[in-house]
């Protein structure tokens, strides 16, 4: 029996999919990348953007056709699904289940009853499932799930629920195991990692007796300090952060940390105080700028990235200009710019979506042009320098430059093309006589850059 995973949305969903793989492999299913040959199609959905939901509707047509030739084919929906989307999609799937009920998935698949209910949404059980990574050197480790912030545009508190923190002991054990298995690149995941440990909702019996319980030190900074002490050759990042919870202690730690990348994703969402208030983001833009400047002053080589929404209800041209001014001031390395789309059931969906599609597109492109300039400016600082990179894979022959290259990444997630290389039949990559092994670190000298890619040798 074969299963096909259709994964939408953020890294949290990718992480969920890794746990789904473990459960399905354990139930004697084999993964396929060809949905036409699957007996089971599992959608890890994302309700954060309408475009992701639209993609599911697009796929459903095709899966319906597949069912006419494969009568055993079952379709399952899980992931981040808003109640309103769930209501509309429920009838189109064989089963819908909450990701927290993942341990009961095999029972669900074999059930003939579409209305079969799974029992007990134990998030502690979910966390205990070991992920099946697709990469042999990069891994994601969830440290929490859910969010208490209720930004007015966001689906997450409604789809994933309130914040639940994974016991530190369990997180540290997973990171240690990954390092032992030669993983080099680890990302700690959560919707708002800085709030880790604010409260513990897992009981001692499910969490075990971790250091946090003994010492009472339950915050994010203590967790990452413990991780940084683990011996090995690896780097770690964390995402996502909330500006309101980003402390000076965290900045000082990153400045001197051995393993944590000088990479900070600091979502701003808008450059206008009026819009931030409407979004229920509890900071003023002046405070955000002060924080970003403090980060840059303490960690000059930091790679600062952000999320921003354009066309939020009521965003005038003046409000948008404030986002543009912010981009010019902060000089981000990268930004995820999204056009606002109302999500049913969220508070902002009640506001009039009064910025036209065309204007949202124009604002997105305009901001992207500013970003391209600042990203290039930041990348140029690396030209002429020797930097540590993680080799990922050889690239197809016939690149834009007419030469083969190897793809790699910096600890700050910048893409690097490595020249010159030769590819042997067994896909072995060599530069001169030196072998480049995917999943190993190397030092390259950066000789050129664009806004989005560095080139090194
Ligand atoms: S902090 Fe992030 S995940 Fe939480 S509600 Fe706001 S946007 Fe959503």
How many beta-strand elements?
21
How many helices? The count is 15
* Terminal residue distance: 45 Å
Please give the order of strands in the largest beta sheet.
2-1-3-4-5
CATH architecture of the largest domain: 2-Layer Sandwich
Ligands bound, unique: iron/sulfur cluster
Helix content: 25-40%
What name is given to the CATH topology of the largest domain?
A: Transcription Regulator spoIIAA
Largest beta sheet, briefly? 5 strands, parallel
Mean of pLDDT: 89
Count structural domains: 3
Structural class: alpha/beta
Proportion of residues in β-strands = 15-25%
CATH class of the largest domain: Alpha Beta
The rough form would be described as: globular
Which blocks of ≥5 consecutive residues have pLDDT under 50? 200-217
Rg over CA atoms, rounded to whole Å, is: 23 Å
Secondary-structure map with pairings?
Layout: E1 2-7, H1 11-26, E2 30-31, E3 40-46, H2 50-69, E4 74-80, H3 83-89, E5 95-96, H4 105-110, H5 123-128, E6 138-142, E7 144-145, H6 156-159, E8 164-165, H7 168-180, E9 185-189, H8 204-207, H9 211-215, H10 220-228, E10 235-239, H11 248-256, E11 263-265, H12 273-279, H13 285-298, E12 303-310, H14 317-330, E13 334-339, H15 357-380, E14 386-394, E15 406-409, E16 415-418, E17 422-423, E18 429-431, E19 434-436, E20 441-449, E21 453-456
Parallel strand pairs: 1-2, 1-3, 3-4, 4-5, 6-9, 9-10, 11-12, 12-13, 16-21
Antiparallel strand pairs: 7-8, 14-15, 14-20, 15-16, 17-18, 18-19, 20-21
Give a structural overview.
By secondary structure, the chain is α/β, with parallel strands linked by helices. It has three domains: 2-123, 3-Layer(aba) Sandwich (Rossmann fold); 135-261, Transcription Regulator spoIIAA, CATH 3.30.750; 386-456. Helices cover 35% and strands 21% of the residues. The protein has 15 helices and 21 strands. The protein has a five-stranded parallel beta sheet, sandwiched between helices. Strands 14-15-16-21-20 form a five-stranded mixed β-barrel. α14 packs parallel to α15. The radius of gyration is 23 Å and the shape is globular. The two termini are 45 Å apart. Residues 200-217 have low confidence and may be disordered. Bound molecules: iron/sulfur cluster (SF4). Residues 147, 149-151, 154, 156-157, 191-192, 242 line the site of iron/sulfur cluster.
């Amino acid at each position: 029996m074969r299963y096909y995973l259709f994964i939408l949305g953020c890294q949290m969903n990718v992480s969920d999919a890794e746990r789904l793989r473990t459960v399905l492999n354990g139930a004697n299913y084999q993964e396929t990348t060809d949905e036409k040959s699957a007996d089971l199609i599992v959608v890890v959905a994302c309700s954060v953007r309408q475009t992701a939901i639209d993609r599911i509707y697009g796929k459903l047509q095709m899966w319906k056709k597949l069912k006419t030739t494969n009568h055993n084919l079952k379709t399952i929906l899980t992931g981040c699904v808003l109640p309103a989307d769930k209501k509309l999609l429920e009838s189109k799937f064989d089963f819908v289940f909450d990701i927290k009920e993942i341990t009961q998935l095999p029972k669900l698949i074999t059930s003939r009853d579409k209305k079969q209910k799974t029992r007990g949404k134990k998030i502690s059980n979910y966390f205990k499932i070991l992920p099946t990574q697709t990469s042999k050197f990069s891994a994601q480790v969830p440290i929490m799930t859910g969010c208490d912030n209720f930004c007015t545009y966001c689906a997450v508190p409604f789809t994933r629920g309130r914040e639940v923190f994974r016991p530190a002991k369990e997180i540290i054990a997973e990171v240690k195991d990954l390092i032992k298995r030669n993983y080099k690149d680890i990302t700690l995941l959560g919707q708002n990692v800085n709030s880790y440990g604010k409260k513990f909702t897992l009981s001692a019996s499910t969490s075990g007796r971790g250091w946090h319980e003994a010492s009472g030190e339950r915050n994010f900074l203590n967790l990452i300090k413990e991780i940084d002490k683990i011996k090995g050759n690896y780097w770690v990042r964390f995402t996502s952060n909330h500006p309101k919870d980003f402390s000076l202690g965290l900045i000082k730690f990153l400045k001197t940390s051995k393993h944590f990348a000088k990479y900070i994703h600091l979502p701003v969402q808008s450059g206008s105080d009026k819009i931030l208030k409407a979004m229920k983001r509890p900071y003023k833009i002046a405070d955000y700028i002060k924080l970003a400047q403090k980060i840059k002053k303490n960690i000059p080589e930091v790679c600062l990235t952000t999320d921003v929404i354009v066309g939020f209800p009521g965003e005038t041209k003046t409000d948008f200009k404030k986002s543009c001014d912010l981009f010019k001031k902060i000089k981000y390395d990268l930004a995820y710019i999204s056009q606002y789309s109302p999500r049913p059931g969220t508070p902002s969906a009640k506001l009039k979506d009064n910025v036209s599609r065309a204007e949202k597109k124009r604002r997105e492109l305009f901001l992207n042009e500013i970003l391209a300039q600042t990203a290039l400016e930041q990348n140029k600082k690396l030209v002429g320098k020797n930097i540590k990179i993680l080799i990922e894979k050889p690239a197809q022959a016939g690149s834009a430059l007419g030469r083969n290259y190897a793809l790699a990444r910096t600890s700050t997630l910048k893409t690097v093309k490595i020249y010159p290389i030769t590819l042997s039949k067994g896909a072995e990559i060599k530069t001169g006589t030196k072998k480049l092994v995917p999943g190993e670190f190397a030092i390259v000298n950066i000789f050129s850059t664009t806004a989005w890619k560095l080139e090194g040798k």
